[in-house]
């Protein structure tokens, strides 16, 4: 089994910063993609940023957050981080970690989601 656990959400004032963390654990053989999505009330879930590690690392970041947000990964810890700076009220959402990986018992690629962490940007 695989577990994906996020942490680091909370309430922050406009212009503030937060750092989200996500750790994948369990019977992991190889991780191909680690990333962050968010879902605001009444809206569809959208990609924020991800790191694709198939041949080297390739980073995709949504245009709406380029600059203030940065994604990074710790391969040794099976962890991915999202540093969010200059937060705006429209950044209020539940942020989900997504990991695409293969396990020790099944080498096919599977997608796992964390439970989500709430980020609220408000004065």
Quaternary: single chain
Instruction: Work out the number of β strands.
Output: 11
Proportion of strand residues = over 45%
Overall mean pLDDT: 96
Q: Please give the largest β-sheet.
A: 7 strands, mixed
Helix count from the secondary structure assignment = 0
Order of helices and strands: EEEEEEEEEEE
Range of helix content: under 10%
Structural class given helices, strands, pairing? Answer: mainly beta
The 3D shape can be described as elongated
Over the alpha carbons, how many angstroms does the gyration radius reach?
14 Å
As residue ranges, the low-confidence spans are none
Instruction: State the distance separating the first and last CA atoms.
Output: 41 Å
Structure report:
The model has no long low-confidence stretch (mean pLDDT 96). The protein is mainly beta. 0% of the residues lie in helices and 61% in strands. It is built from no helices and 11 strands.
Q: Helices and strands in order, then pairings?
A:
Elements: E1 2-7, E2 10-12, E3 18-26, E4 28-39, E5 46-53, E6 57-61, E7 69-74, E8 79-84, E9 93-103, E10 110-113, E11 117-121
Parallel strand pairs: 2-11
Antiparallel strand pairs: 1-3, 3-8, 4-5, 4-9, 5-6, 7-8, 9-10, 9-11
């Amino acid at each position: 089994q695989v577990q994906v656990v996020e942490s680091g959400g909370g309430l922050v004032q406009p212009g503030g910063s937060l750092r989200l963390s996500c750790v994948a654990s369990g019977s992991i053989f190889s991780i191909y993609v680690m990333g962050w999505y968010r879902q605001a009330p009444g809206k569809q879930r959208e990609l924020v940023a991800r790191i694709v590690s198939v041949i080297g690392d390739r980073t995709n970041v949504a245009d709406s957050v380029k600059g203030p947000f940065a994604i990074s990964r710790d391969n040794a810890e099976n962890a991915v981080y999202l540093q969010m700076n200059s937060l705006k009220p429209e950044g209020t959402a539940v942020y989900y970690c997504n990991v695409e990986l293969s396990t020790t018992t099944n080498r096919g690629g599977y997608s796992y989601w964390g439970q989500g962490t709430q980020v609220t940007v408000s004065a």
